[in-house]
Each structure stands twice: as C-alpha cells, then as structure tokens.
C-alpha cells in the first residue's frame, strides 16, 4: 500500500470516527448534565 | 470577497448569547472551591469528553493545523497518529492519569508539594503560569485574522469582536468555573462539531481528494507523504511529539482538570479512549483543510512565464516584487496571484543558495499557509452556512479561552499566590484569588497579542511554549509516582534545565530548530532529574504521603 492510500484511509477513518463519536456525545451528554445538576442540587439542599 | 451578511451575524450572535446565558445561569450551583475547579468531581464520560475536546479545539487549532497541512502536506498527519496512539495508550494503561486522579489533587503542581516540597510546587506553578500564558497569548492574534477574513470586518472592528469574545468567556468562567464549563462546553462541542463537518464537506466538494493528492505530489514530492523525508519533521520531530503528547495528555492543566473532575479514575480512562479518535480528527481534519486550500489556490493560479535571466537576477527581482505586492494581495485574498511567485522564489533560492532569498520565500509561504484556509472558506461558503460555521468556530474558541482561563488561573491562585502567602487561606479567599486571576489573565493575553510577533509557524511556537514546563512536569510526576529515589533536588534541576532549552527556541538569535529545542528540553530535564535524585536522594515517599 502506498503512503498516499494510507493517508487517505487515515483521513476517512478520522472524519468518520469524529462524526460518529460527536453524535454519541451530543445524544448521551444531555442526560449526564441533568445527572450532575441533580447531584449538585441534592448537595445544596442537604 | 466574503458573502458574510446579517443572517450570519444573527446566527453567530445567537449562539454566543445562548452560551453566555447557560454559563451564567448555572453559577448558582457553585458553592465551594471544589465545585468551581472540578465540578464536585461529578463529570460523566460524554460530558467530560465534550469538555476536554472543546477546550483543546479553538479557531487557533484549526488555523495552525491547516497551516501545518499547507506546509507539510499529508506528512503532517503523523501528528494525528501520534495523538491517537498516546491517548489510546493512556486510556488503556491508565499511566499517570489513574494514580494522579487517585491522589485527589485539583491542580498538577499540588501533587508536587505532596511528593517533593512546597518550593517545587511554586516553581512548577510559576513555569506553568508563564508558559501557559505565553501559549494563550497568541490565540487572539491568530484568531482575529480568521475572523477578519471570514466576516470581512476591518482590523479595528475585529479587535472589538475579540474583546467581546474574551469578556463572554471571562464572565461565565469567573462566575461559574468548571460547572459553567461543563454546560457551555457541551453546547460548544455540538456547535464546533457541526462546523467542522460542514467545512470538511465544503473542502471535499471544492477540491476533491484526487486534486489534493496531486497538488501535494507536484509541489512537495515525496516529503509531502513521508514525514521522515521532510527536513522540518523527521525522526527527531516524531520522537519529540510522542513525548510531548504524552505530557500534554497527562499533566497539561486544562486536560488534567478534566481527569480530576471525572467521577472516578475508570471514567477518566474511558474518557481518554473516547477522546483518542476525536483527537485524531482534531489534527487530521483541519490539516486536510490546509491541503485543500493549497489545492484550491494552486488550481486557480497562472504559472509564471519562463525567464531567460540568471537565477540570481530572477530571485532578486521576485523578492523586490513580493516586498511590494505580497501584503496588499494577501489582504485581498489573492493567494493565487502570490503563490506562483513564492514558488519561483523558492526554486531560485534553491539554485543560487542565497540564504536571504530562501528565508524570504519561507516566511512568505508560512504567511500564505496561515491565511489560505480562511480565504478559501470566505470565497466558497454561502450566506447562512457561513454563520453556522462561524458559530461553530466562535464556540470552539470560547470553550478554549474559558478552559484555559480556568486552568491557568487555578495554577496562579492555588500553586503560586496561595503557597507564597505562607498562611492558610479560606476557601472563599482562594475562590476570590482564582476569579481575580481569570481577570488578570484576560488582560495579559489582550496586551500580549498586540505586542508579540510569532517566530516561525504558530504550531511550533505553541508547542515550544508548552514544552517550557511539560518535559520537567511529566518527568518529575512520573518519577514521583513510580520511582522511590526521586528527590526535590532532581525536580529543581529538571525544571530549570528543561525550561532553559525551550526558552532558547523563543530567542530567534540562537537559531535553534524546533525539534532540537524540544528534544534538548526533554533530555536535559531527564538528565537533571536523574542526576539530582541519585546524588541527593529524597526521603522515603511513604513518609511524605503520611505527613501530607
């Protein structure tokens, strides 16, 4: 495999992975923020 | 040249307003210093990842990575592979990050006091504060250029936009600390990821992979694909990057704070595994934009007519012409008119061997490399999409400023000012000092960005200022965690020698290459640490831990 092909694969893998993981972070992150605030709220009331 | 209009301003302003609103709103959750600095150590995997990545991606990142791609072609991608390998390795092994997280510290130098002495903590704190501030100090300088090109604003107006950006970051960071950062980083991550994907698709549509590869092949030959054949990279560069990225991902304060803020050490490790692919993209994607910009403008440039003049005469004439035309043409985005002349000057300088011509061509290519990507975007993005991309870029920068403000101000307050006062400070006083440090830091970078001229590519400057303290910090922390003989004498020598080598790069008169300065810094820091620890060994660390 030539270096040219290798870098092309590296690019597509990085772009694909960036897109997929970003989607995952966007979807799962909301729940985690709610959880953190619940924890901080409980501590404040406690 | 740019189609940036009222709709784009509205989108960008709206994104800033939402971020500021969310950041200020959550300040009510900040009660203690621990909430402020590490969000009660309650950060989950995905939010932690968003926070870590958005902090380490700003407009500056896109600019210097694109510059690197424009200059080195696909060889630059090797840095992406190094970050991937380092992040994955750390995530799998937990090397340094797990033990450091388990100590319960809030800043990196805090550990140095527990393991060595208070003096080492202050010394490390001072070097981190100086190196970190110098590093952050050129961000507005470079980012203002991006904003000026994309929006078409005049320089004096861009300065106000930058000032507004800094004030927004200052406001919510000073009020809400890490709690604000958790929320705003999440919003910012979503925006910056969307902007990154849009710009990449635009680059691919405008140039295409085949054209990019052909341009690199024509203009750079083998060095554009093989990093070992590039005289600015090579094995020494690769080796230094491996060391530096290991340090950046373990003891760089803004990254370490995310590890400290994680729910537990296992979450911290998983965060690194997830981050590894994003960090690969953080390097490779904007580098591709730089290569796309090179292909975009090369395709639009006309080759210069052949000349019968001797190479020396041609080089002198080109240098004169570029001295007159270069800046006005670049300021108007006419990269395609300048590029062939710079290429010809490079070729003539190669033939004549006149160093001054080679240097003139080199500095002009570096200048083109930093502005080519934003000029390509300004010429290709339509209204509306431009606003979305700018919103993503502003979000990226805001999160970087906020994260770095918090990171470096925590160091200044916790590790420099606090320990130097030689009395126990209350939590409220420490919180006040941290907030005051955020304000001080904002003022410093606003001033520094106005007075400093960056020597060479921004990527190298940023890495060398980081290297000012990264090599000794990682070495003393690894030594402290894993080597019983490690001593404070070794730590002092490590910090002094490591910092001296990096400072040498920042003094242009010494003409020290970036990889040489980087590797020298690591070698001297390691040598000083080992020699100092062997000659004057420290007390048994288990006794010190008990005392702490």
Annotate the secondary structure layout.
The complex is a heterodimer of chains A (46) and B (548).
Chain A: H1 3-45
Chain B: H1 6-25, H2 33-38, H3 45-55, H4 59-72, H5 78-93, H6 97-103, H7 108-115, H8 118-137, H9 139-151, H10 155-206, H11 209-220, H12 234-251, H13 253-261, H14 265-300, H15 311-331, H16 335-352, H17 355-380, H18 385-420, H19 427-451, H20 458-482, H21 488-506, H22 514-535, H23 541-547
Summary, kept brief:
Chain A is an all-alpha fold and 46 residues long. Chain A contains one helix and no strands.
From the spread of the alpha carbons, the general shape of chain A counts as rod-shaped
Biggest β-sheet of chain B: count, sense, barrel? Answer: none
Number of E-state strands of chain A: 0
Main pleated-sheet profile of chain A? none
Structural class of chain B: mainly alpha
Number of strands of chain B: 0
Would you list the SSEs of chain B in sequence order as H and E? HHHHHHHHHHHHHHHHHHHHHHH
**Global morphology of chain B:** globular
Helical stretch count of chain A? 1
Alpha-carbon distance between the two ends of chain A: 62 Å
Helix fraction of chain B by DSSP (H/I, runs of at least 4): over 70%
Mean pLDDT of chain B: 84
Helix percent of chain A reads: over 70%
Cα end-to-end separation of chain B: 62 Å
Account of the 3D structure:
The complex is a heterodimer of chains A (46) and B (548). With 46 residues, chain A is an all-alpha fold. Helix content of chain A is 93%, strand content 0%. The longest helix of chain A has 43 residues, at 3-45. Chain B has 548 residues and is mainly alpha-helical. In chain B, helix 7 packs parallel to helix 20 (458-482), helix 12 (234-251) packs across helix 22 and helix 21 (488-506) packs antiparallel against helix 22. Chain B contains 23 helices and no strands. Chain A binds chain B through residues 2-4, 7-8, 10-11, 13-15, 17-19, 21-22, 24-26, 28-30, 32-33, 35-37, 39-41, 43-44, and chain B through 26, 29, 31, 35, 39-40, 42-47, 49-50, 74, 77, 80-81, 179, 182-183, 186, 189-190, 193, 196-197, 200, 209, 213, 217, 225-226, 274, 277-278, 280-281, 283-285, 288.
């Amino acid at each position: 495999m030539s270096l040219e092909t290798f870098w092309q694969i590296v690019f597509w893998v990085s772009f694909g992975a960036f897109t997929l993981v970003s989607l995952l972070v966007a979807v799962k992150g909301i729940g985690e923020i709610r959880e953190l605030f619940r924890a901080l709220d409980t501590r404040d009331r406690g | 040249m740019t189609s940036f209009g009222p709709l784009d301003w509205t989108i960008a302003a709206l994104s800033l307003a939402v971020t500021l609103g969310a950041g200020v709103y959550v300040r009510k959750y900040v009660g203690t210093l621990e909430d402020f600095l590490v969000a009660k150590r309650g950060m989950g995997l995905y939010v932690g990842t968003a926070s870590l990545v958005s902090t380490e991606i700003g407009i500056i990142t896109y600019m210097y990575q694109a510059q690197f791609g424009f200059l080195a072609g696909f060889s630059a991608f090797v840095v992406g592979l190094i970050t991937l390998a380092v992040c994955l390795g750390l995530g799998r092994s937990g090397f340094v990050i797990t033990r450091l997280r388990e100590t319960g510290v809030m800043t990196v130098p805090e550990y140095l006091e527990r393991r060595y002495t208070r003096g080492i903590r202050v010394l490390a704190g001072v070097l981190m504060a100086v190196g970190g501030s110098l590093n952050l100090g050129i961000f507005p300088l470079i980012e203002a250029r991006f904003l000026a090109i994309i929006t078409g604003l005049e320089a004096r107006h861009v300065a106000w936009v930058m000032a507004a950006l800094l004030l927004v970051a200052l406001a919510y960071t000073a009020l809400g600390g890490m709690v604000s950062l958790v929320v705003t980083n999440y919003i910012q991550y979503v925006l910056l990821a969307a902007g990154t994907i849009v710009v990449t698709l635009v680059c691919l549509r405008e140039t295409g992979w085949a054209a990019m590869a052909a341009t690199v092949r024509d203009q750079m030959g083998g060095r554009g694909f093989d990093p070992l054949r590039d005289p600015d990279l090579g094995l020494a560069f690769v080796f230094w990057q491996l060391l530096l990225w290991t340090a950046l991902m373990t003891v760089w304060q803004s990254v370490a704070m995310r590890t400290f803020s994680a729910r537990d050490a296992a979450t911290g490790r998983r965060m690194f595994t997830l981050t590894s692919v994003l960090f690969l993209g953080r390097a490779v994607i904007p580098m591709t934009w730089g290569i796309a910009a090179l292909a975009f403008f090369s395709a639009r440039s006309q080759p210069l007519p052949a000349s019968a003049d001797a190479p020396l005469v041609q080089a002198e004439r080109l240098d004169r012409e570029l001295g007159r035309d270069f800046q006005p043409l670049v300021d108007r985005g006419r990269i395609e008119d300048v590029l062939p002349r710079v290429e010809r000057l490079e070729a003539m300088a190669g033939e004549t061997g006149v160093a001054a011509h080679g240097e003139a061509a080199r500095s002009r290519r570096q200048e083109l490399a930093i502005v080519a990507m934003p000029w390509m975007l300004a010429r290709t993005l339509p209204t509306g999409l431009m606003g979305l991309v700018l919103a993503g870029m502003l979000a990226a920068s805001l999160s970087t400023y906020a994260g770095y403000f918090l990171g470096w101000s925590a160091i200044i307050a916790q590790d420099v000012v606090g320990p130097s006062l030689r009395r126990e400070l209350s939590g409220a006083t420490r919180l006040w000092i941290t907030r005051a440090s955020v304000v001080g830091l904002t003022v410093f970078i606003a001033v520094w960005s106005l007075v400093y001229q960056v020597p060479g590519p921004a990527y190298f400057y940023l890495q060398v200022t980081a290297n000012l303290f990264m090599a000794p910090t990682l070495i003393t922390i690894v030594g402290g965690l894993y080597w019983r003989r490690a001593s404070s004498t070794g730590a002092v020598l490590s910090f002094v020698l490591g910092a001296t080598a990096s400072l040498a790069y920042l003094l242009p008169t010494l003409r020290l290459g970036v990889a040489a300065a980087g590797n020298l810094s690591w070698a001297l820091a390691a040598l000083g640490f080992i020699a100092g620890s062997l000659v004057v060994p420290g007390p048994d660390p288990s006794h010190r831990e008990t005392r702490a």
